């Protein structure tokens, strides 16, 4: 079994109102010096088999088809 | 300026209906051998200053107070 982590983040320049809200909330809680905050998603997946190259290709296809919106998001695949 | 990434994931044993839905969707799209899928959140933060120890302490406090629900979630702090 292969364990993988996929991280999906917004591309630079794409507005992130959720991140902005967190930024303001942190400042409001008294944390000084908080700059830009951006929120993304992480997926932890388990895949059957032991072929890491196939797993990586599959994971990239999963990102393109379902996990990420490649118009506005980047993704990174990490295999443990 | 310090760049940091905070990853928040559900603790083991906590039900993740969103992850389950993704699991079914991936299987429905024709991806074989997809086991458990769990979804989490990732925050990319910029902090002023250069004191990494202080930044790490601040980030842990931010997680405890705002970014994570420590009853059901774990967090990991990574400083770039």
From TrEMBL, chains A, B:
Superkingdom of source: Bacteria
EC number: 6.3.5.3
GO MF: ATP binding; phosphoribosylformylglycinamidine synthase activity
GO biological process: 'de novo' IMP biosynthetic process
Enzyme category, top tier: ligase
Keyword Ion transport: no
Catalytic activity of the protein: N(2)-formyl-N(1)-(5-phospho-beta-D-ribosyl)glycinamide + L-glutamine + ATP + H2O = 2-formamido-N(1)-(5-O-phospho-beta-D-ribosyl)acetamidine + L-glutamate + ADP + phosphate + H(+)
Pathway in which this enzyme or protein is active: Purine metabolism; IMP biosynthesis via de novo pathway; 5-amino-1-(5-phospho-D-ribosyl)imidazole from N(2)-formyl-N(1)-(5-phospho-D-ribosyl)glycinamide: step 1/2
UniProt keywords, alphabetically: ATP-binding, Cytoplasm, Ligase, Nucleotide-binding, Purine biosynthesis
Pfam family, one: PurS
Localization per record: Cytoplasm
The keyword Transmembrane is annotated on this UniProt entry: no
GO cellular component: cytoplasm
Function: Part of the phosphoribosylformylglycinamidine synthase complex involved in the purines biosynthetic pathway. Catalyzes the ATP-dependent conversion of formylglycinamide ribonucleotide (FGAR) and glutamine to yield formylglycinamidine ribonucleotide (FGAM) and glutamate. The FGAM synthase complex is composed of three subunits. PurQ produces an ammonia molecule by converting glutamine to glutamate. PurL transfers the ammonia molecule to FGAR to form FGAM in an ATP-dependent manner.
Family affiliation: Belongs to the PurS family.
Subunit structure: Part of the FGAM synthase complex composed of 1 PurL, 1 PurQ and 2 PurS subunits.
Full protein name: Phosphoribosylformylglycinamidine synthase subunit PurS
